[in-house]
Amino acid sequence: MSKLAEGYIEPDDVAEARHEIQLSMALAKAVYDRRTELGLTQADLAARAGLTQAKISRIEGSDTVPTLPLLAKLAEALDATLNIALDADHTSVRFAGHHTDAA
Questions:
Q1: Rg for the chain (alpha carbons), in Å?
Q2: pTM: predicted TM-score of the whole model, two decimal places
Q3: CA–CA separation, 15 vs 90, rounded Å?
Q4: Handedness of CA 30, 81, 97, 48 (dihedral sign)
Q5: Where is 29: in which H helix or E strand?
Q6: What are the chain's domains?
Q7: pLDDT digits (tens, 9 = 90+) for 38-72
Q8: Of the four, 26, 33, 88, 94, which is 20 to 30 A from 81 by CA?
Q9: HTH cro/C1-type domain spans which residues (predicted)?
Q10: 18 within 8 A of 24, measured Cβ to Cβ
Q11: How far is CA 39 from the centre of its chain?
């Protein structure tokens, strides 16, 4: 259990659910940020990834938990490497764009 406010102890199941929501929201933000950085619409990204626009919307809305193969499709479609760092105190999810030399 974790202590949130004076006199309140958060039950373990609530803390776990909160953590899962935070992970889903971090991924949603990472997908949205990279997609908009590239100037893509949800439909554009869906076409690149072989998915539906509705699926992209659910991912960006934190309404679904993607599988590893789906994450790989997203990374490829976003021309990026997906970096996920997880530990007890910090979560980081981001797409790092591939850099290519124009020369």
A1: 16
A2: 0.81
A3: 14
A4: negative
A5: helix 12-37
A6: 2-97 (1.10.260.40)
A7: 999 999 999 999 999 999 999 999 998 899 999 99
A8: 88
A9: 31-85
A10: no
A11: 18
Separation CA 98–CA 15 (nearest Å): 36
In angstroms, the CA 36 to CA 39 distance is 5
Any idea which residue has 């934190």 for tokens? 62
Q: How far apart are CA 52 and CA 65, in angstroms?
A: 15
Which tokens go with 17? 């659910």
Inter-residue contact 97 to 37 (CB < 8 Å): yes
User: Tokens for 58?
Assistant: 């659910």
3-state class of 58 per DSSP?
Answer: helix
Residue 50 zone, left/alpha/beta (φ > 0; ψ -120 to 50; rest): left
